[in-house]
């Protein structure tokens, strides 16, 4: 019996998620040689995922990855904690976009959200820890294999609020991105996305049904909050392959458009569900943490739009709240308010990367402890159960609310390396 064998897999995920896992450069190189991807998304079993192998905030983590017995294992302070596995690197990832300007300012956030590729980090981002980022020479895949446990497309890495100098203080994406990073406005990008998506459909075959598609972005200018860009992505795919494939869901993650007609347009384009993240519930806390138009937007606006969305979309309508940057009681009030209109809340812990790293440095936020997250998840589970609601099917990888409530999502077999690769036998154990 190992020291940690009494812990359930869900408890192990909650223990790890705020720390990240230290992974040596050598082991990362080994993982990549083996065709695994991404290091950021780790699996405990085949139905419990979390993007918690973040060396980016794991320097002081008690967790470290080791390779032994042809498998990958997490150790905690030198004691075996759990076996883990990773996604494999799909071939459609070779379909990459480049600004073609020889720019070296594109970064691959190796450990961040969404497998995360962002062309938006400034040159000196994370210079204190170059394990976090790897310059890609300006190339990154059109279609991400994301911490959403499915495919993701970002039509823009830019965010209006960052451009205005007022980003949300917990924003997980680093950088001073601007209109240049509105990929959809770059010549050839939409066509490239459609071709890359076609390649993904070919590669995954029938297993595409076990995948989801998420279109996400920073907030774009305009009353529709960028819905036009989301719609163009689906239209380009339909023009290329003649249809949208059957998937678990096709979800727009977007700030609520001001006008309800936009919801109909998103649904008509093929989105089956929508997620509008409140992130912070209390009005005063919202303004302090989101010093921009999003922070000024009243919760009643979210209630109005999400209530309408419930009538329109065939799939799930959801929101998100972040634990650790607001009072727990306010977060729970938010969960209850939205449960009251039939909208489940994805509850995620604050993590210290991107802009959020500054919050930790100045002491305005800290990563919630595992005990605190267990309490928050338990209280949220109680609220959702009382309203006879399941947790969101969309889980962003890092939230353990769904698993706390017994809901699991199996990873797509086509994105998984089954068994141990032959060459793993030659790998050095660390
Ligand atoms: S959290 Fe979203 S809305 Fe806020 S600055 Fe970041 S990308 Fe923009």
How many domains make up the 3D coordinates?
2
Which class best fits the helix and strand makeup? Answer: alpha/beta
Mean pLDDT rating:
83
Q: N-to-C SSE series?
A: HHEEEEEEEEEEEEHHEHEHEHHHEHEHHH
Q: Major sheet: size, sense and barrel closure? A: 7 strands, mixed
Which ranges are low-confidence, i.e. pLDDT below 50, for 5 or more consecutive residues? 110-117, 119-133, 420-430
The strand count comes to 17
**Measured distance between first and last alpha carbons:** 22 Å
Layout of strands and helices, then pairs:
Elements: H1 9-17, H2 25-33, E1 42-43, E2 49-50, E3 63-68, E4 71-76, E5 79-86, E6 96-98, E7 107-109, E8 117-118, E9 133-135, E10 139-141, E11 144-146, E12 150-156, H3 160-163, H4 189-204, E13 213-217, H5 227-241, E14 250-253, H6 261-269, E15 273-275, H7 283-289, H8 293-296, H9 299-312, E16 317-323, H10 328-339, E17 345-349, H11 356-362, H12 370-386, H13 401-404
Parallel strand pairs: 12-13, 13-14, 14-15, 15-16, 16-17
Antiparallel strand pairs: 1-2, 1-5, 3-4, 4-5, 6-10, 7-8, 7-9, 11-12
Bound molecules: iron/sulfur cluster (SF4).
Iron/sulfur cluster binds near residues 161, 218 and 219.
